[in-house]
Amino acid sequence: MDLASVVGLVLAMILVIFGITIGDGFSAIMAFVDRDSVLITFGGAFFTVLAMSPSFAEFFNGLKSFALILKPLPSNEKETIESIITLSNVARKEGLLALEEAANSIEDEFMKKGVLLIVDGTDPELVRSILETELGCIEERHKSVIGFWDNLGAMGPAWGMIGTLIGLINMLGKMEDVASVGPNMAVALVTTFYGSMLANWICLPVSNKLKSNNASEIMMKEVMVEGLLSIQAGENPRVIEEKLKSFLSPAKRSELVGQEGGEAIG
């Protein structure tokens, strides 16, 4: 489980509850609970995003993507580069056909597909074209899911404001009852609160986390493409390692120092 996401969301909610209860205790929470405001803000936001979605399936797929921020990324840079170096050593010692057996132990379907294309003797340019096309499709699917949370994050405050305007209009229609102005005003503003919470507590963190995960996954798949094409070109394993390490930050490169990189250059 990605603890950073869980801890961040929980602590943010605790801070909000702290702010609400700091003056009048937990009884103050009831002032922030209003059924009609919930229906207008959350109902309006989710239904307009449903209207934007290509289909019901896409809408529910967007909702389910919330779980993705709770899962750690399935692979990391160090393991991916080490796997490619291992494959390059196998190819250099036993030939490209020997990679077919090694492909059986590869869990990442993208890299496994690339290895099998190489084993089949596919032209290097065609291998690059196939892998980059798949990479582009993966990124488009990710953008679609990220767009769901961006849209919901935009609709939350918008429907919160609509709820506030509805409350204010209703309140102004009953101005003869001065005592009810304060409570009605508070209820009207609750919708803005709900909309801001939906956007800033849920949607923006989820969207940004998914963008970060997407960038990491795409970068690692680019590493795989360059690594596999280098293996197909017969490059030295240590040259491949140095090439792939250029994708990493200096801190992450240092984690690979001392690894069995492969044969000496030359």
Automatic annotation (TrEMBL):
Please provide the Gene Ontology terms (biological process) for this protein.
Answer: bacterial-type flagellum-dependent swarming motility; chemotaxis
How does this chain sit within the bilayer?
Multi-pass membrane protein
Q: Which residues cross the membrane?
A: 7-33, 39-60, 152-173, 185-204
- Annotated keywords: Cell membrane, Membrane, Transmembrane, Transmembrane helix, Transport
Q: Which residues form the MotA/TolQ/ExbB proton channel domain?
A: 103-221
Q: Which GO terms describe its cellular component?
A: plasma membrane
Task: Answer yes or no on keyword Cell membrane.
Answer: yes
Location(s) in or outside the cell: Cell membrane
Instruction: Report the Pfam families cross-referenced here.
Output: MotA_ExbB
Q: Which family does it belong to?
A: Belongs to the MotA family.
What's the protein name? MotA/TolQ/ExbB proton channel
Organism source for this protein?
Lachnoclostridium phytofermentans (strain ATCC 700394 / DSM 18823 / ISDg) (Clostridium phytofermentans)
Q: What is the lineage of its organism?
A: Bacteria, Bacillati, Bacillota, Clostridia, Lachnospirales
